[in-house]
Model the fold of this input.
Amino acid sequence: MDQKKMAKWIEIRKRIAVLNEELADLKEDSENLEYALVEEMATDGISSMKVNGVSVYVQEKHLASINYQEGEDTDAGYARVCDILNKVGLGYLAHRRFSIPSLTKWVNEQKEAGNELPPEFEGNVRIETKFKLIPRGIKAAVAAEGD
Done:
């Protein structure tokens, strides 16, 4: 057994662990800053801006999920919302259960098109609106810094 290779592999794994920890910290810092920046941009009425060669714009997304009733279990919640999806013509999303990502996609399509959601969703399907900052040109800005 080549112990030098094993030692090198162990050092690589250690470095990966350190970088993963740094990455987790950076992601948390980024999320906290993003939340604050979205709030500031909303307060100032700004939907996009360019800083240091990077364009940043606010993206609105809606997340759909079951709005569980008091004491309702998972199966009952899915069944209730599947019935509603069938009733409003979205049966293709509902089988024994429905796909939350597919419903979320449909909700975003409707919102982006300016359409109202079915009134049956009220109190049954939870729609959570999130705003994210979307940067464009990061790779080019990083490359320009390296030059």
Q: What stands out?
A: The chain has two domains: 1-46, 59-131. The longest strand covers residues 54-66. Residues 78 and 97 are 6 Å apart (CA to CA).
